[in-house]
């Protein structure tokens, strides 16, 4: 299957595209790799935008006509304040504190122009916001993608938000049989909170490269965790993969397990895109037990989507990971049960949901 096959958009509702031209996706992050990038891509296709006619917007000091590659068949365009203020409806797919000036100035100028009518902003986790943002966030329609974070915003900052499941675009997979799969792979970002050191320690105990690691590196994390030479890490690391559905599906089709030991403060229980990618491509998930058990009282028990031994494997340390890989258990039931989670992410209609929640805020 060729790459172009993944972007045949015959199923796009042309009438919907025409009616949605006023809604723009704004990306307020300096990096174009990781979960927030993947979220923006799946949201783009979920909202039935045409990748040939509509770019994602990215704030910059200069406005550019040039379209740049966002990945997964989508383009992005740098836009400055003057052009941003002309927008009527905006959905910020991610914001980081170093883009605080954008939301603050946008609010202040919009009080005079009143051009921006419907304003939506997605909060992924507690690291997306800071105390100085709060007065401005109260004037936006906030969206959360895990119920844990919805509770956190309310309890910590008294911020109301709408919970919506992660959107997932069901791109064609390679169709490899589960019987042909071997080994374990990690495709998460390589940085703090991902517990990559647990994977490296497991590989050392196994005496061979049983866990292949891919993903974007946080250099400071690698240096402080694995040392200047970081030989053990280099032996397991295979680089970044191209941002395309074809590439991620071809990569995952070879593996039996996807391991993601992420832990996020004040969060847990729900889905992340590495989880959804694994499920969609027929891999069994290995998660951190603290993500699926309410150890820190971060979330209510019924918020958890995963159950150890039913739709995922779970563990706490490298010894357990080593033992699981050596046992190499059958994964057919785990994979089958995990796929039950995917349907809600495919069928969720963000456009309809946001339309129902839309409200005009003038001050």
How would you characterize this protein structure?
With 363 residues, this protein is an alpha/beta fold. It has helices spanning 14-19, 35-46, 81-84, 100-113, 134-137, 147-157, 196-206, 219-226, 231-236, 245-252, 273-280, 289-292, 318-327, 332-347, 350-357; strands at residues 23-28, 56-59, 68-71, 74-79, 89-95, 118-123, 141-144, 162-163, 184-186, 211-213, 257-260, 284-288, 313-315. It is built from 15 helices and 13 strands. It has an 8-stranded mixed beta sheet. Strands 10-9-11-12-13 form a 5-stranded parallel beta sheet.
- Rg estimate, integer Å: 21 Å
Q: Got a strand count? A: 13
Taking the sheet with the most strands, its summary is: 8 strands, mixed
Helical run tally: 15
Order of strands, main sheet, comes to 3-4-2-1-5-6-7-8
Structural class: alpha/beta
Which stretches of 5+ consecutive residues score pLDDT under 50?
1-21, 359-363
Q: Percent helix among the residues?
A: 25-40%
Helix/strand order: HEHEEEHEHEHEHEEHEHHHEHEHEHHH
**Oligomer class:** single chain
- The outline comes out as globular
Report mean pLDDT, rounded to a whole number.
88
Beta-strand residue fraction: 15-25%
- How widely separated are the two ends? 51 Å
């Amino acid at each position: 299957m060729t790459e172009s096959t993944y972007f045949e958009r015959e199923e796009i509702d042309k009438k919907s595209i025409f009616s949605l031209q006023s809604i723009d996706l704004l990306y307020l992050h300096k990096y174009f790799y990781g979960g927030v990038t993947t979220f923006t891509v799946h949201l783009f296709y979920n909202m039935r935008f045409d990748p040939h006619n509509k770019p994602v917007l990215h704030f910059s000091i200069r406005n550019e006509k040039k379209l740049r590659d966002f990945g997964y068949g989508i383009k992005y365009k740098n836009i400055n304040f003057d052009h941003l203020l002309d927008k009527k409806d905006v959905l910020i797919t991610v914001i980081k504190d170093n883009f605080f000036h954008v939301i603050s100035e946008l609010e202040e100028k919009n009080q005079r122009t009143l051009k921006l009518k419907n304003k939506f902003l997605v909060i992924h986790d507690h690291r997306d916001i800071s105390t100085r943002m709060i007065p401005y966030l109260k004037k936006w329609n906030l969206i959360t993608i895990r119920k844990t974070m919805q509770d956190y915003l309310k309890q910590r900052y008294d911020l109301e938000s709408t919970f919506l499941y992660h959107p997932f675009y069901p791109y064609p997979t390679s169709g490899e049989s589960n019987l042909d799969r071997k080994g374990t792979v990690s495709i998460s970002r390589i940085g703090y909170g991902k517990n990559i050191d647990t994977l490296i320690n497991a590989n050392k105990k196994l005496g061979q490269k049983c866990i292949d690691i891919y993903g974007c590196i946080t250099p400071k994390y690698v240096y402080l965790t694995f040392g200047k030479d970081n030989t053990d890490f280099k032996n397991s690391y295979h680089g970044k993969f191209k941002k395309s559905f074809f590439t991620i599906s071809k990569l995952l089709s070879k593996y039996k397990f996807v391991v993601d030991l992420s832990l996020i403060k004040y969060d847990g229980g729900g889905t992340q895109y590495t989880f959804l990618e694994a499920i969609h491509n027929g891999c069994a998930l290995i998660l951190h037990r603290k993500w699926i058990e309410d150890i820190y009282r971060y979330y209510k028990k019924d918020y958890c989507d995963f159950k150890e031994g039913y739709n995922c494997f779970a563990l706490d340390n490298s010894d357990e990971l080593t033992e699981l890989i050596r046992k190499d258990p059958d994964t057919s039931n785990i994979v089958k049960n995990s796929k039950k989670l995917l349907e809600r992410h495919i069928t969720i209609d963000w456009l309809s949901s946001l339309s129902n929640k839309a409200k005009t805020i003038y001050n």
